[in-house]
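I am still getting used to backbone structure tokens and would like to learn alongside you. Label the sequence line and the structure token line clearly, so we can match residues to local backbone shapes. Would you write everything just below, so we can both look at the same thing?
***
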Amino acid sequence: MKKSEKTRQLIIEKAAVLFNTKGFYGTSMNDIMEATGLTKGGIYGNFKVDGKDKKGVKEEIALAAFDHACVVVNKTVGKRTRVIEDSLDKLKAVVYFYKERILSPPIEGGCPLLNTSVEADDNHPVLRKRVLKEMKTWHSRIVYTLEKGIERNEIQEDIDTEEFATLFIGSLEGGIMMARLYKNVAPFEVMARQLLKRIDELRNK
């Protein structure tokens, strides 16, 4: 990896934590400079934006940082689920993963998808678009897992896979939000219990 690529990666990794804990508007270029030990010029030089738009540079860093955070989370969860064959057990493993890591997530600050979606809802359309893309990807992965389970006769064939994927994500993210708010895993455990029960009910008898 070239020095310039290493520097850019350093910026992205440090910024991912900053944006995930402080948000887009709460994170300043000075914060990124302090976290990376780089000058403002050193940061701008790795994120070229037409017209030297300083706001545009911060936006590019935020987008790259969000992508990086999602990759880290997905890889960490993937290590847990990749070795599991049964489709429903894969979904249950995701629930157990978040239950274990709810207060010590792969990226400091919690779920980047949840954190970024709240802030980017109406205030930042470009970031919102990126979050929406990631959400659709996650939703599609769950639908795919369910459909494979139906093909293998593991899951009842009459379930609405799209609807259950929405329920799955909503239950996890709602539980994560409440647990982070209360700094207590109890709210997530309530959601996890109900979600695990619903997953078991999908199994083909």
